[in-house]
Batch of 4 targets.
Target 1
Amino acid sequence: MDQNPPAVSKITVPAILERKLRGEKTTCLTAYDYSTARLVDEAGIEMILVGDSLAQTMLGYDSTVPVTVDEMLHHLKAVRRGVRRALLIVDLPYGAYHLSNEQGLASALRFVKEGGAEAVKLEGGRQRARLVRRIVEAQIPVMGHIGLTPQSIHTLGGYRVQGRTLDAATELLADAEALEEAGAFALVLEGIPRELAAIITRRLRIPTIGIGAGPDCDGQVLVFHDLVGLSYNPPAKFVRNYANLRATLHQALVDFRIDVREGGYPGDHESYHWTSAVREQFEKESTRPA
Ligand code: KIV
């Protein structure tokens, strides 16, 4: 098994496109700070997304809607310091591109220049095609995101699977083709039927990266906290827990509390010591009459 992926060169946008041509699956995970970025990068994951899901996982908001460009930038900078090999992508959060295409480009430029992002992701289909083209023309690679788009929660009326009917599926296919045409280098398909994801994947030259879109996509993305069992939300159907870190960490913290209370921590071997010369000198000084 590929436990330690070989040290390979930096993952770039052309490298991601070539993977689709070679029929190689691509992996993507979110990371939100230096330590998660290092873990993900060192595991050989090809793409790291500073997702706006950090609104929930890191900041405790109840949706991705409130998170700001400045909050995203703070996390992006920390992730940048931990990533050496993976392609680093950041989400344009809600409100960072909804006023105008110029605003969207300005937000993307900030993430690249100040935060070190190598690509941006944004949600929406045909209505975002012009913006995608505008950002790509400024030499910033763009990843699209269609289907269940969490920034549209108020319009969608909940986190529901999209593209279930023939009409809805036709709309999503048109969105996917428009984003490819506009220059997106990859497309996240979230919360859509497996059959539709397979058709979109076959139709596009750019890779599709699925989340709740079945196994036929060119790659898969998950939220870091879901994969390692750190999330507080009930897991969606598509989430597989590869670890149960919440339980592991909870036990570690409780053990610490008990050890301290009962005098089991720290032990002598976890303490610093004087040399015997200093100890003897101290004992001599303290027994000398004043
Ligand atoms: O913000 C996020 O984490 C995402 C992925 C789940 C695709 O957009």
Target 2
Amino acid sequence: MTRDAFARDLAAALAGRPRSISPKYFYDAEGSRLFDRICELPEYYPTRTEIGILQRNAGEMAALAGEGAEIVEFGAGSLRKVRLLLQAFDRPARYLPIDISGEHLRDSAAILRAQFPGLDVQPVVGDYTQALALPDRAGRGKRIGFFPGSTLGNFTPDEAVAFLERAAALLQGGALLLGADLVKDPHVLHAAYNDAQGVTAAFNLNLLARANRELGTNFVLSRFHHYAFYNAALQRIEMHLVSRERQVVTLGGERYVVEEGESLHTENSYKFTVDGLRAMAVRAGFRPGPAWTDPERLFSVHWLHAP
Ligand code: AVI
């Protein structure tokens, strides 16, 4: 049904003013491949910086988690990050990755089962941005949520609080380990979303290519600019696709006129201060524990107790 939702949301975006669509539609197979390339770019510091923070502090995180903890990952992302936790934790009881893509989950589960033969891996197919039930706890250890990558920043502030509230309820008695990108020199942010190789531009434009593949639209990608900038007042990177000329787009038998210079807003990526993030977590019902950063204070990882 994703295709129907995509068609409906894209039609609403094209008809609306300002035009905007959820960044979740970036991630078809091609979009996920492009995102993996973004994570390797010299300008895109979040991935390697977060991995460094996890590597340096995994021992302290393991001590907070205690023996026999289970890890619930929101989104089956890069196995590299959760592997660092599984290696450091004291006899982790179970790993529960939650993802909307069953195929992606099965692949990740198979790899982890082979690498950690004693580990119980139980994938959960579901949308973690909605209410969701988890299997009963495996043992007496704590339930530790893991939400790396600053994906929280792609939610609106209201969605972020709603997600944290649901996570606090799911993790009662345990904690959430949360990655959050930090506010910083806007030039560093600008470069991270305007890389020299144009991979982020291709990632953004893939939304239109995906619509052509799945919905039969007639977008000509060369008629749009990738436009990403830091909106300091709102503490967020905004990504847009800006029309280079007046054009007519067809979707489901409807015609939409897009004027030169008009934009389709495709993503927000909010940046946080350590204190701001902790205050938001308190509002959602968490009790903040340690927050770790890198020496340049580019990125942060937070331990949030769920009472
Ligand atoms: C997945 N998310 C945290 C990325 C970000 O930085 O907001 C997505 C992304 N968009 C452009 N580059 C990376």
Target 3
Amino acid sequence: MKKILIVNGPNINILGAREPKIYGNITLAEIEKELSLLAKKLNVEVDFFQSNHEGEIIDKIQSSVNTVSGIIINPAAFTHTSIAIRDALSSVSTPTIEVHISNIYAREEFRHKSYVAPIALGQIAGLGTDGYIFALKKLASLAQTFN
Ligand code: CA2
């Protein structure tokens, strides 16, 4: 069965607990449950990973090489700072969709820059947690078409 890796970066583990106006009330556990149910319907396997540490995210991306057909990543604040995460994603050459819960372009200027976007298949921002759903549907369909 094709596998999709779903990576969440720093502070996504406390989603739902604070700043509901920006990020909503949904928790990471609830997002992952919904994605698991969808993955079953789409006939793909999902591997969830969240870390507050840049190096751990890089290690996870590197170790996914040749084992996953797609990557969904919300690098959170590392989106705007991490050339290292971008390089790791480039190195594995796996179709990647960058997801942001909030519309990063409607927020502070420092959030307008994404180091990941230029090497991603696409970016979804501002559609809340539905962005993960749309990304999973797209990558599952790609995996079944091409791999
Ligand atoms: O909109 C997104 O998904 C972000 O990736 C979320 C990041 C932010 O740094 C990015 O610019 C956009 C923040 C992750 C969650 O941070 C929280 C902060 C307070 C309370 C709960 C979560």
Target 4
Amino acid sequence: MSTDADLTTGNDVTAAHGEVADRVNLLGLTREQLQVLCARLGSKPFRARQLMHWLYKRGCDRFDQMSDLALEFRALLAERAGIRLPEIVSQQQASDGTRKWLLRADQSQAFEMVYIPESDRGTLCISSQVGCALDCAFCATAQQGFNRNLSTAEIVGQVWLARRELGFEPAGDRIITNVVLMGMGEPLANFRNVVPALRIFLDDLGFDLSRRRVTLSTSGLVPQIHRLAQEINVALAVSLHAPDDELRSQLVPINRVHPIAELLEACWHYIDEQNGRSVTFEYVMLDQVNDSPAQARELARLLAGHPAKVNLIPFNPYPGSRFRRSSEAAIGQFRDLLLRGGVMATVRRTRGDDIDAACGQLVGRVTDRTVVRLGSRVEAARIRVAGASV
Ligand code: SAH
């Protein structure tokens, strides 16, 4: 995999957006790609280890501070490479401690990341695209349309930046214990840039995160789930949101291309291939749309006996959203019916909603967009569901 072409992987987008095209951004390179770069610069491949140590263990973004690298090599690096981070446009902190950063992708584009502190862990929720093309009926990001994929360096740069913002931990307690690709975008629609970023998250010379603590959430791009199973082992979350194809096709339009049976088959295959524990199925709780006892039972029938757990997400409203959140009683009953039906189920606690940092509320800033909406291409996106106007 260590070809010359690989060196540009993940940096192609950055270059196309006005950065110095011939100066490779080190944050977009996996360990193997860094080794190729070092060799190409006439240095020993093991220098890649030292570079990664500075980048990821020490949180250093300046070649002149990398004191155990030869001066000549540092000069060469400064000439031929760079360490470029997304720029922070603004940040907000919610009353519950959740923090949200707006990051600049380029002159008119921005995307968001969110840090969620809990007593036993710290979760960073990162974006994989500016906007999203999947057009899920209840998601604020979908309203923005799709602009572009983030580069590997921009995806890795989010974790790097968040660690700096939160104070790089020299040892001991980790501030970021979990990374979830649940921010803006559909990660599997940006497969080429997301997979190298995942490798850097897991690499012990990189962020050294446990594979069970890196979660990729997808709306259900079946061929890419199969590809992912061959490439890398991370926790998989799937946005299911409905127990039957008719409703799911309305809520998550990609279902018209890859219906539930096909999706579930890909999930079980992923678990088999990766020796995983279970797939987490996300299920947004929409009042009188997908939250009835009958639907809970149907969902339990679909998943019981499989390596599955369900995470119920109370719907987070945003300006212009046409859904309502299910009542607490309905959510509790839905969970109980799943448990009774033999399916592990939890309710996701809403975090950061006073700064619009909760699931589905991330909108970043997308202007000059080329709106490509898969849903509208497959079929008309305006559908009426059980009295709720979608
Ligand atoms: N594109 C990925 C990541 C999306 S965000 C995916 O579809 O899985 C993570 C989760 O939040 C997804 O399950 C998504 O469907 C859900 N979500 C989107 N909008 C929401 C909203 N307004 N309220 C609650 N959850 C929402």
